[in-house]
Amino acid sequence: MNVCTRPFRHQGPRIEHERIGRKDVVHNYGHGGSGWSLSWGTGQIAVEMAKAHGRKDLAVVGCGAIGLTTALVAQQAGLRVTIYAKERPPYVSSHRATGSFTPDSRIVSAQFASDFARQWETMARHSFRRFQSFLGVSSNPIEWRDMYSLSDVPFGSPRPVVHSLEPPYPPFERDLLRDITPQWRSVPLHPFPVPHVQRRSALIFNIAEYTRLLMAEYLANGGVMETFVLQDKRDFAAIHERTIINCTGYGARALLADDSIIPVRGQTAKLIPQPGLDYGFYYSARRVSVYPRRDGLLVQAQAEGDYNNDSEALDPEESISAVQRLAEIVEAMGGGRGRRDQKLTR
Fold first, then answer.
1. Contact of 187 with 198, CB cutoff 8 Å
2. Secondary structure of the chain: what % helix, strand, coil (to 5)?
3. What does the alpha-carbon distance between residue 23 and residue 26 come to, in Å, rounded to a whole number?
């Protein structure tokens, strides 16, 4: 079991320059649940801002999804890069993500959507193109998998009013990427114990292998890694390079005293890999999702109170309950065992 704290900001990620002492710091953090998905695009923007200061040596703080990818983008732009980080994969928090392409997951609140939409689309399209270059690689760092959405009521039905502090989010992927990403389609025949099912193909990350490839490329390009702990913004002065890209994710909340970052807790459990099981599903009414990862079936428990919750304490009952709900769904699917393969084909 793992707990991951997603760094959500109502106004979207912070990608901007700040002068701190003698250092030019480009902040690149606050991507909610979209860090892996937007990493190449947001790294491109941050690196262009860093290059504007005219120096060839660059420091990147943080070695998670955003930091490692940003460092690679900087190398490809001809910069000499050193990563300063307290932890390295697999011990960074982004290594505990669900591992799917979700570029608009808690990325911005609907209130600020119109101001952020163009930048989001630029980042999402650039990232999507880069992910295509990893398809077909023998180690399968990224691959297409079918995902199903299960519902007890027709899709598009009005949802019951739920009083929550969590804001509504804009459907950016649906509205702005329809020409490049698969869309949901109804599935009339299926083995699931619900009346309404939709399916679409989704990019799934084999995070362990994908990270290994990124690390290997970074080091092969001459990248340097330094173990470094920042307590507050004054510690930027101890970094040798004068141009820095800050990719500290949720850690920026404490590092910069940035209360605009809101923690969104997420707990997952990993089951034994099942190579023959190559699809996953979401069932929001039962508050459970399962992702067909190569390193195991990742079961995400969706609990009340995750929003604005910074607890990283594991709750075994939360994951046990989610796995039990998953088992009940699978057991109910047994009634259509004889026709299951036919129903799940296209």
1. yes
2. 35, 25, 40
3. 10
pTM of the model: 0.93
DSSP string for residues in 216-230:
HHHHHTT-EEEE---
What pLDDT does residue 161 have? 67
Q: State whether the Cα torsion 245-247-251-256 is positive or negative.
A: positive
- The length of the chain is 346
Contact assessment for residue 37 and residue 101, using Cβ atoms and an 8 Å cutoff: yes
Of 215, 80, 202, residue with least CA distance to 144: 202
Q: How far is residue 336 from each of residues 27, 208, 332, measured CA to CA in Å? A: 52, 35, 9
The conformational region for residue 217 under phi > 0 = left, psi -120 to 50 = alpha, else beta, is alpha
Which pLDDT does position 346 carry in this prediction?
Answer: 33
The list of the chain residues with pLDDT below 50 reads 336-346
Q: What are phi and psi of 106, to 5 degrees?
A: 50, 45
Q: Identify any residues that bridge with 265 across adjacent strands, giving them in sequence order.
A: 5
246 and 42 Cβ atoms separated by less than 8 Å: no
SS in 3 state form for 32-68? CCCHHHHHHHHHHHHHHHHHCCCCCEEEEECCCHHHH
- The number of C-alpha atoms within 13 Å of 292 and in the hemisphere containing its C-beta is 19
- Tokens encoding 100: 């799917």
276-281 long-range contacts (CB < 8 A, ≥24 apart) are 278/145, 278/146, 279/145, 279/146, 279/147, 279/148, 279/344, 280/145, 280/146, 280/147, 280/148, 280/204, 281/147, 281/148, 281/149, 281/150, 281/192
Cα 29 → chain centroid: 12
Task: List the structure tokens of 184.
Answer: 């949901």
